[in-house]
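task queued by scheduler; priority normal; single chain, no ligands, no partner chains; default sampling; output format set to structure tokens
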Amino acid sequence: MKRLFYLPLYFLVLLSCSKDSQEVQSAAEFLNAGSGSFAGSWKLTEKEKVSIDDQKTWEPVSASQSYTIILRSDGVILNADGKPACCAPTSLIINDRLLEIKPQSPIPTNEACELVNCINCPTWEIEFIGNQMIVTACNSPRMKFIR
């Protein structure tokens, strides 16, 4: 008799479980799902400024503040010189889809990163629309890049 009681209870518990985390995809699955090619060279053009009254505006960056990053198709982020970016994330959320960064080819070492004290920011959020992407990296201001 106890078995008849536990069997429906078991199925109830089993069916009530749900995934709380986002589904992690490989880069190949991500690109095949129709998200387009985010790979390529991206130049910083604007940063978001927030005023005292919480108004958000985009302000152009000066030529001295602008820089270029390279996104590989496996999600690895490189500097313009082809070396890995210091303090790079381990995953990206691109248009609300999680992409785990798993290098598919060797990454050169970047000696400059030994001098940088990184604050842990494991995931960057990216809004990717055509030739424009907006990057939100933890507590940093949002940054707008173009191809």
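post-processing summary
- Helices lie at 2-16, 27-35.
- Residues 9-28, 30-35 have pLDDT under 50 and may be disordered.
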